[in-house]
UniProtKB/TrEMBL annotation:
GO terms for biological process: DNA recombination; DNA repair. It comes from Mucilaginibacter rubeus. It holds the Pfam family Exo_endo_phos. The record marks 149 as: Transition state stabilizer. PANTHER family: ATP-DEPENDENT DNA LIGASE, BIFUNCTIONAL NON-HOMOLOGOUS END JOINING PROTEIN LIGD. This is DNA ligase (ATP). It comes from the Bacteria. GO terms for molecular function: ATP binding; DNA binding; DNA ligase (ATP) activity; DNA-directed DNA polymerase activity; double-stranded DNA 3'-5' DNA exonuclease activity; endonuclease activity; metal ion binding. Its EC number is 6.5.1.1.
Length: 975
């Protein structure tokens, strides 16, 4: 008997996905959570046509649970015993099916912690525990299954430290789950997989599924009467990868008809990483089938002709290994990088220098026999008798052919008329697995490891491999670029060098004693970096001399002729070495211990000639700081996610709620003029609730309070610790308004304030927007909009962000959009992340994170540079004139907002404008003609935020390197 649980997260919107999975998996019983539909709208008929009876308990906006069964189902209860009036974001339904009591659970999320929702979660847990105690010792088999919104152990999250203060991982939640299990229940997944990371949920944001940044939230608890029948369990993870799927994947268990023999509780011992790497190096790890069909994977790829003269994407060298869930790890192959262009029965292997590899004909022949139309990227290696990559054997392969040739393919750039370079790496790898025939020894898919990067590096080092490659799972492919989303970490220090001469010591019988080697600097000058005198035998020297003789020249190719017989601390006497210079046309690879203080290699050893490299491309490869690079890439990824990720559905146009359809999670629900409510432990009095604040739209003061209550979890982080300028509209948007900054002796005792002496020497207390209670207290004063400082009380002189304010006069909003796109073009050119939001009035605001590292003056200087560049692009309708009278009706590119004490409408703030508009973060993809202010209003903002999440998170990030950025801007643009 197969019993499953699936948090469908909107059953009617995902009915097609549910039916597809039911047809594929054929479970006997299914528990569903988060139906998000009213009882009358439950899709009973299509589920019946699929062969399932159902009972359900629905709820319009939030949760709701259902149980499906292929056989007769009898409802036992549709709620837990006991009552709790505070929230309704949880559900329980219980049924009797095939002699088993099945309880379907949606346990409340409980965020934000701390807060009333978390307190409610623990109370709900207690009700569940009391009911479970009644069930555990019953004579009938019982299963409690569903979304518990708890990660019981560190194995149940990809990053425990990230969730320390999350209600899903709080110690109180984990203890409540632990106490529940201790009643005598068996956690089915953990019983079968005691030491493995099993995930059932992957967030929509930042490509969590592709990075396997998952959580285990969905659980099966079995009482003693049925635990002995547990035969198997799994997660249908691939369903999470279907387009438009829920953020949860279906989870199921298999029950035998009778008790099984006791299971041996042996500790799970994964295969050592060294063994896994060995398998991969030998090409034995290409069994995993793609999770999605090829047509779906290719759907978003644009049509394109096969690329010509494509060069491989390169990795940046960094100084240390690291671990991050956004990255996958590969072996750094010791071979020749090769792009394979395969079309119409022909195949060509091209070096990174766009030269053909014609010596590896077996690879070409096999590719041609497969009748592919594809462009592949990989590494040609030769495997010795032990199955390890051997660069020397590869160089001699044309002559000896004793080693086993292999082409390890790690990327696909084009396939059958589709350009794939703009797809994320994880998707390209899935396409690669779909396209390449499996289990071939000559052409193999290079294994990607989702493991701890530091441990992977240490294992590779222990195995004496050259190193590892780390790649962002969501990275796109940039031809001929050295990407910081692909990093290489070398276990051995290796360097490609130009062979510019050879030396011969007095009295030696060898062809030569050492090679004189160099690299090019940034100005294209060849610099001497020392000699290499080991690593070649007589046969190799004879072969190399044949290459050297046509290139002998009388003059040194270095900028300064070096003393090749110079003594050093390691070789204090001269050896009588004489130099023969060569034209700098050959490249070799060396391994060395270190670069000395005077820029020379120490203990260098020759590893082989590199005919695939252009000498002019050979520069000294310096290791970048790993932490700096990874943090920079992570921040850029956050920005890219915001820019590229479209909302899950089209922008919702403003519309009034249907009568009688009250949204969930409202603070004030009565029709009384006055209500008192406790918010975060503080008693607040809300008055004149029926007063219409937006007359044209019929929006009341009560509606305003309910809006700020609902958005508080995403809005408060942008108000916390920030002094607030209170812009009060006690009579609504058309009444008199005034600013209040000083709240001395006026704010509640519990509110946090910041003492401040203004320029005139007047002492004031500024209110800090620290929490929801403060936000609602401000709203109670008639503060329709929220106006926080750009800096926090802890660093009042250092703003957290710089803002470009696009302030139109008579321009159409499409021209505001054009100006915003120009701002983005400038910022993109200098690699600066930016976050746009509508002003909620007539313009747009573009935020740039600074991380409180600079002064307001420095921020304003930077903003001034940006707007000057933008103005140069669109001078016809923009101006930098501050005085309105001097603007001549043009749009003001305002950079002067970046000053102490200045404020603009905060993120998610309502605006005192007809339409009850909201200052809403948008993706850059949405910033295009057709966007309007009224796309985001009090009526639809909450639903949009639920769909997109907080698109503004990066604004409070690490911040840019302002000095480096300004230098880059000055280098690119002439101001």
């Amino acid at each position: 008997m197969k019993i499953a649980t699936y948090n469908i997260n909107g059953i009617n919107g995902r009915l097609e996905i549910l039916l597809r999975w039911l047809n594929e998996a054929q479970p006997d019983v299914v528990c569903l959570q988060e139906l998000k539909c009213e009882n009358s709208k439950f899709p009973e008929r299509p589920l019946g046509e699929a062969g399932y009876q159902a009972i359900w308990h629905g709820q319009k906006s939030w949760n709701g649970v259902a149980i499906l069964s292929k056989t007769e189902i009898r409802e036992l209860r549709n709620d837990l015993p006991g009552e709790d009036e505070e929230f309704t974001h949880s559900r329980y339904i219980e049924a009797f099916i095939n002699g088993i009591v099945v309880g379907c659970i949606y346990l409340p999320n409980g965020n934000p912690y701390p807060g009333p929702k978390f307190d409610y979660k623990l109370r709900w847990f207690q009700r569940l525990a009391e009911h479970a105690q009644d069930l555990v010792d019953r004579d009938l088999p019982v299963i409690l299954v569903g979304d518990y919104n708890v990660m019981p152990t560190e194995l149940d999250t990809y990053k425990p430290e990230k969730y320390v203060d999350n209600a899903l991982f709080r110690v109180e939640s984990r203890d409540a789950y632990k106490d529940l299990v201790a009643q005598g229940w068996t956690d089915a997944i953990r019983a079968l997989y005691p030491n493995e990371r099993i995930y059932t949920f992957w967030d929509y944001l930042r490509d969590a599924y592709a990075r396997n940044a998952g959580l285990r939230l969905d659980h099966f608890l079995l009482n003693k009467k049925i635990a002995g029948r547990l035969a198997g369990a799994d997660v249908d993870k691939h369903v999470r990868g279907w387009k438009g799927a829920s953020d949860h994947a279906p989870v199921w268990i298999e029950l035998a008809d009778n008790d099984l023999p006791p299971r041996k509780q042996t500790a799970f011992k994964p295969e050592p990483l060294e063994k896994q790497i060995q398998h991969a190096e030998h090409g034995n790890e290409i069994k995993q089938a793609p999770a999605t069909d090829l047509n779906t994977l290719l759907k978003d790829a644009p049509s394109s002709k096969i690329p010509a003269d494509i060069k491989p994407m390169k990795a940046t060298l960094v100084d240390a290994p690291f671990d991050d869930p956004g990255w996958i790890y590969e072996i750094k192959w010791d071979g020749y990088r090769a792009v394979a262009i395969v079309k119409n029965g022909t195949a060509e292997l091209i070096s990174r220098n766009n030269l053909p590899f014609d010596q590896f004909r077996p690879i070409n022949d096999l590719l041609e026999s497969w009748q592919l139309n594809a462009v592949l990227d990989g590494e040609i290696v030769a495997l010795n008798e032990q199955g390890n990559a051997d660069f020397g054997a590869l160089q001699n392969w044309r002559n000896s052919k004793t080693a086993k040739l292999a082409y390890f393919v790690f990327d696909i750039l084009w396939y059958d008329g589709k350009r794939l370079t703009d797809l994320p790496l994880y998707q390209r790898r899935e396409i690669l697995k779909s396209v390449l025939p499996p289990d071939n020894e000559l052409i193999r898919v290079s294994q990607a490891f989702e493991v701890n990067g530091i441990e992977f590096f240490e294992a590779a080092k222990k195995m004496k491999l050259e190193g590892i490659i780390a790649k962002r799972a969501d990275s796109t492919y940039s031809s001929d670029a050295r990407s910081r989303e692909w990093l290489k970490i070398k276990a051995k220090r290796r360097q490609e060098v130009v062979v510019a001469g050879f030396t011969k010591n007095e009295g030696t019988g060898k062809y030569f004693s050492a090679l004189a080697i160099g690299v090019y600097d940034k100005k294209g000058v060849l610099r001497y970096i020392g000699k290499v005198g080991t690593g070649f035998n007589d046969a190799k020297q004879r072969e190399m001399m044949a290459q050297f003789k046509p290139l002998i020249t009388a003059e040194s190719p270095f900028d300064v002729e070096p003393d090749v017989d110079e003594p050093s601390q390691f070789r204090p006497r001269r050896l009588g070495a004489k130099a023969t210079w060569l034209k700098p046309e050959l490249v070799c690879e060396v391994e060395f211990a270190e670069i000395t203080g005077d820029g020379k290699v120490r203990q260098a050893s020759f590893k082989g000639m590199r005919s695939d490299k252009n000498p002019k491309d050979v520069v000294l490869e310096l290791e970048a700081d790993t932490q700096d690079v990874v943090e920079e890439v992570s921040l850029q990824s956050d920005m890219t996610t915001v820019i590229k990720e479209k909302p899950k559905s089209p922008i919702k146009k403003a519309s009034k709620p249907k009568s009688g359809a009250a949204p969930a999670n409202l603070l004030l629900t009565s029709k009384n003029e006055t209500e008192e409510k406790k918010v975060e432990g503080h008693l607040l009095k809300f008055t004149h609730l029926n007063k219409v604040y937006w007359p044209e739209d019929g929006v009341t003061k009560r509606d305003m309070f309910n809006y700020y209550h609902q958005v508080a979890p995403v809005m408060v982080p942008y108000l916390k610790d920030r002094p607030m300028s209170l812009n009060r509209f006690p009579g609504g948007i058309h009444g008199e308004s005034f600013y209040q900054k000083n709240v001395k002796d006026k704010a509640p005792d519990w509110a946090k304030t910041m003492p401040h002496t203004n320029g005139e020497g007047v002492d004031k207390d500024y209110l800090l927007g620290n929490d929801e209670a403060t936000l609602l207290w401000m709203a109670s004063l008639g503060c329709i909009e929220m106006n926080p400082w750009f800096s926090r009380a802890q660093s009042p002189d250092n703003p957290d962000y710089c803002v470009i304010d696009l302030d139109p006069d008579k321009q159409h909003f499409d021209q505001v959009i054009q100006a915003a796109q120009e701002v983005k073009n400038v910022l993109d050119a200098i690699d600066v992340p930016s976050y746009p939001k509508t002003s909620g009035s007539t313009g747009m605001h573009i935020y740039i994170p600074l991380g409180a590292k600079y002064t307001y003056d420095q921020s304003q200087l930077f903003a001034n540079i940006i707007v000057k560049l933008v103005h140069k692009q669109i001078p016809d309708f923009t101006t930098l004139e501050r005085m309105i009278s001097n603007r001549n009706g043009k749009m003001y590119l305002d950079f002067l907002q970046n000053r102490p004490g200045a404020t603009i409408a905060g993120v998610y703030s309502l605006r005192p404008k007809p339409g009850a508009t909201v200052s809403m973060p948008v993706c850059w993809d949405e910033v295009k003609p057709g966007l309007t202010m009224r796309d985001f209003t009090i009526h639809n903002a909450v639903d949009r935020i639920r769909e997109t999440g907080d698109l503004f998170k990066g604004v409070l990030g690490e911040g840019i390197d302002l000095a480096r950025t300004i230098q880059k801007a000055q280098a690119i643009f002439t101001l």
